[in-house]
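S., here's the first fold you wanted:
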Amino acid sequence: MPGTTHRRRRTAAAVSALALFLAVGPAAGPAHAAAVYDRRPAATAGLFAVNGPDHAAAQQFSTAGRHVRSVSAFLVSASPAGTLDAQIRTDVADPATAVAEGRVELADLGGAGEGWVDFPVDAELAAGQDYYLVVQASGTSGSVVWNGVRSAVPGALPSWNYDVAYWGGWHAYDSGTLATTHAAFGIGLTGADACGASHTCYRPVPAGDLAATTAGLLGNGTTTVALSPLDAHGASYVPDSNVLRLPDGDWRYLPDGAAQPVTVPAGDPGAAAQIAASRAWLAAGTVPGRTPAERDAAARALLTLRLLTQPNGAVAAAWYGAWKYSWPRDAGFTAAAFAATGHTDEAYRILAYNARTQRADGTWDARTRLDGSGPPDSRHWQLDANGWVPWAVWEWYEAAPGAHRERELRALYPMLEKSEDHVAGSLDAGGLPPASPDYWEIATAAPNIGTAAPLLSGLRAAADLARVTGHPADAHAWTDAAGRLSAGIARDFAPGGYPRTADGLHGRDAAVTFMAPPFGPAPDGLAGAVDATYRALLRPGGGVVPGDDPGHPWADAWGPETAFFALAWSGTGRPGAAGQVVDWLLGHRNMLGELPEQVDPAGNPASVVPLAWTGAVTLLALTQLDGHRLPVPPVRCAPAGHGRYGG
């Protein structure tokens, strides 16, 4: 899945107070007066590792001139002990220019945790003078990270990073994409601005809970807000809702029309109305599961997918940083999960968004901004979207009520036509698609199963939809293309157990499950290949990695890839094996019951939580385990002479 943070997990030896603020690297440029910039409360992203002696960070600031008795920084510490130091300097690189300093012991804060740390200082600051709040940790046994935001902030002054190995010393984040990096800090915060007013003061959180940057979501249908591990620790959702019950019994939720959450007494009418609305929405569809635990996980996944789905149909992969974009792959599975659980309007909204964001040649960008304005960067597009989107349309059509589905399908048909004509025209003489980055988002030199298998499902699905919409020429052409692609897969992938690439040089791949229902009927020999791949990719603590390509080792187990084995086995008459995988997934949800992108070797939910793709695939597996087999696109033979693309 997409992106990494700047968080670095290193163990630092204890250093002296003098060495702690060692001046290494270029001196800061001349001070430049600016409008007051003495606070930045948002702390949604991990920015800078500050555990020394080779790491520190600073935030440049300016005040109106006043006596200051405290400075604050939002820190996340995986270390239970160590010393946190803060200085106010007039030159970021010169500790001799410090006008004040404060120290806090992590042990006194309760150990590993997250939140605003207040440092006691005593300083008289001059109006219009640029200062630097420098923060560094020493004597730690785990990472300490200074959080903030990665977005434009009008009037902000630069953040600075001290990383000896990477920058050679101090480096200003004042140009290019780095200029939108702003540390969460405060100078002399009191009253409503202090952390006590927002319940965000530093408090202990188990280090394992800090392996993920996010922990849950609040939302109101138009706005979504991520919960941090700090927000989630000791809290729980009110059942079947997105209202958070805090440790003291109060509720926290995002009111209709609001941009920020509020804390209210339990039973607050606005929050109660939102709870009732969530439960009514769940009741309007189905919540799959054979046990209370499975149904609880399914309800949570559905409510999460609902919040990640935007009013325009875009689906955020997760509500954090580089994941807060819409991938056609993830969106397709979300649409299929909504369709399978009776929420076909939500499914159609997603598919319509995919139609609007399709490129002129019939393909899709790797991901788009949530407002549909195009890709956020130059990440290479991935051809598997041309399989997942048509398959999702077919699953929606099979589940949708008859009243409007014909008209809605006709509106989507131009998207299908462009998509599948592109796929059919891309197949080589042997029936395989070109080499393309797969769901790993890593290019391969040879065709890969992570692209070929979904394209096969998409061609079959689109051919069936062409028949029901009265487009026989398209149906014949796409059926012919599916036949050639199926033959190519059988020739070049099946003999090796469906490895990652046709040349067999890149190991096994969890995408072997893409050959199983509900994507298509399982070919002969697939069961053995799925079993062998699962054994090869299984981690000691459970869960699987995407593949065992020696060129791309993986440490963490991945949620979606693990869930795909449950989906394959539940669709091929092996509920026992599927149930064991589902049990593992449910056993590795986080403290709020959310499904993660990854699970680290220690068994902690990691990376981002929740992830739409994990939730969607798990919902599909739970649906099948609950006795409702998902439909499979039919396999038909093209009449002789009807192939448009070399049949």
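And the second, which I think is the more interesting of the pair:
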Amino acid sequence: MRHPHTRTTRRRVATALAAGLLCATGLAAPALAAPAAPAAPTAPTAPHSPAPAPSDDLAPTPPMGFNNWNSTHCRPEFDAAMVEGIADLFVAKGLKDAGYRYVNLDDCWALPDRDANGRLVPDPARFPDGIKAVADYVHAKGLKLGIYTSAGTKTCDSAGFPGALGHEYSDARQFADWGVDYLKYDNCNNQGVDARQRYRTMRDALDATGRPIVYSICEWGENKPWEWASGVGHLWRTTGDISDSWSSMLSIVKQNLPLAPYAGPGHWNDPDMLEVGNGGMTDTEYRSHFSLWSVMAAPLLIGTDLRKASPATYEVLGNTEVIAVDQDPLGRQGTVVSSAGGRWVVAKEMQDGSRAVALFNESGAAQRIATDARAVGLPGAGAYTLRDLWRHRTYNTAGTIAATVPAHGTVLLRVAADPRWAAHPPAVELGLDGTPLIEAGAPVTLTGTVTDLGRTPARRVSVSLTGPGGWTVRPASATSAAVLTTGASLRTGWRVTAPAGTPPGSYDLTLRAGYRSPAGQRVTGTLALTASVVVRPPAGTSYPGDLPWLSAVNGWGPVERDTSNGESAAGDGRPLTVGGTVYARGLGVHAFSDVSFYTGGACEKVTADVGVDDEKDTRGTVAFEIWADGAKAAATGVLTNAMPARRITADVTGARVVRLVVTDGGDGIDSDHADWADARLTC
């Protein structure tokens, strides 16, 4: 079945159809590369500043604006009223003042056929007054208009709107006459013509109009445009299309990060448009999305319908301190400092000599992520200023840069060797040792920490921990300290009890600390934590599909119990089938997938028959892994759809948490529908 929310599938199929390679049935899942990455990705060798494009001044910083595709696709609500409404909101909501300039039309703005003179015709139902009228409206707001076409005979939508291949000069002339300021040039139906030739021809056609037009090369990274497009366009897509899911966003981050050496003023890596506000991720994940795009110096093109956006969405999109990281005129893309265990440190050099530092937690549980000033490229100094760009607070640090980061969260900081560091209170780190897994009715001891990272002492330190109503939370050791010097910690044991009968699930804990700076300034901090109320599996044999899960991440739709993954909707799977064998029990997933459940040290073995589900015909390559308390206990290697089910067995004796992980087989996650067939847990 077709995956309608992603155009990557349509693009690749359309390209292959043009070359006579694929039949027109059975479109695949989103074509994204595997999220797996080495502990410290190695960037390719390249000159730091490739030869600039002729009109570098059009995009000295990454373009910012809006594109309708992620929120409307080709649906009827994409029309002139929407475009003009977005322009109005840019002004009314302060987005224009924050730096957003381009209001861009994506596919479906034209009629399927050109006129008798070979000219493009705007759809009169969507744009009754034409494109120029919309451009004039947008320009009157002090904004710019963008438009879309493809470097092929047709665009990417299945309706088959006209592409620009063979019409480059006449189409570019029309765009210029309409007042277009930005062109997104896609890659569908390209008839096998060399990519460099196609994109250079449109560059020349745009130049011939005499109108300054930002040129966005949407080639999906298939021909490594970062190696040749810096003299052709102002930005180039490095990946397939994003979708509104954690797995998709994470996969794209891992593909784009190693390309940092190719980015700079006038020539930007483009990891695709923003999904912030579209509903497929949590607020925490959307803040990570926005933070990572900014530290990667990526174009910031809003992909949600701002007419329906929540205050939380506007808060993310309008964070001017985060935007300043993206728009820094030095134009460096952030580079990976470390990434072990899903604890990512990404540092971006800024024009003023400071560093933007993203502490990004890829994992499904809170983790401490730490680095130091020298590791992120700052010079030696007695102390540094540290600015939290989401909390909008400034501190001093002796050099350590650290935080406990929630699952899928990002702490974004700006750190500088600043002689005025002493004017700010010391940075204090709050943490909690271990993962709070609590069996209802049974007390557990958690250890909270408050650590002075600053060069100056923290005085009159106090700490508290609170939980849900009805829970018992009592300190088992000191909750205050007269003073903490640099590197010193206040460690407090807490006895936490969830009432008997508390249902399994996630519950909020909050660790709070207060202290005074040497100047007497009162400072408070909070750390939001998640406690999981858990139940041990019963003795004997259990099926993972019958157990409560601590977390479940899936690359396409939800994890399905006792059926295949199916498509994006819940409950749309089919009988689990691998190599023609049908299984009644198990889990249907899609790479990248990670399902974790509590075993409480009471289980010994996990077994399953694993493989690529038959619902994707001959497509799909995956690898299965079983993890026990952070250690890999078993793995299959790469399996393809042509292989029968393979038995996997793992010894999980003593483990408190077991994870069932499916990764990509090395060729992207297209059609990677994987089955944990007849999965069993022995306790």
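Why I say that: DSSP finds eleven helices and 38 strands in the chain. The CA atoms of residues 300 and 571 lie 35 Å apart.

Talk tomorrow,
H.
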